[in-house]
Amino acid sequence: MLAVWIFVFAFAGLGHSLFPYLVEDRLTIWQAAAAPESLRFVLVGAIIVIPLIIGYTVLSYRVFWGKARELTYGS
Q1: For residue 24, is it within any domain?
Q2: Beta strands in 3-55 (DSSP E)
Q3: 3-27: per-residue pLDDT in tens?
Q4: Phi and psi (nearest 5°) for 55?
Q5: pLDDT tens digits along 38-50
Q6: pTM greater than 0.90 (yes/no)
Q7: Does any domain span residue 42?
Q8: Contact (Cβ atoms closer than 8 angstroms) between residue 18 and residue 25
Q9: What is the dihedral of CA 37, 27, 13, 42, to 10 degrees?
Q10: Whole-number Å distance between alpha carbons of 58 and 65
């Protein structure tokens, strides 16, 4: 778990040191972003799809909870 946190903090430090440039000294975050209309379209799609994915995941966990048995090798 410590290795994960080190990676996260290293990535955050890199992002902080390069902010606001995505391509060093050439392209900023705002220049690289898509048009606002496209981003709104993606946001609406995410608002619709992400709850469906979470709901389906919860449903599948509830349906299959406790169905598996401990693995035995023919004994």
Answers
A1: yes
A2: 21-23, 27-28
A3: 999 999 999 998 888 888 877 778 8
A4: -60, -45
A5: 999 999 999 999 9
A6: no
A7: yes
A8: no
A9: 20
A10: 10
Q: Note whether residue 73 is domain-resident.
A: no
Count CA within 13 A, CB hemisphere, residue 63.
Answer: 6
Q: Is 48 among the domain residues? A: yes
* Burial letters 22-43, b for 16+ CB under 10 A, else e: eeeeeeeeeeeeeeeeeeeeee
**Contact yes or no for 30/20 (Cβ under 8 A):** yes
Number of domains forming the structure of the chain: 1
pLDDT at 66: 81
Q: Token digits for 21? A: 């440039």
Which pLDDT band, with edges at 50, 70 and 90, does 30 fall under?
Answer: confident
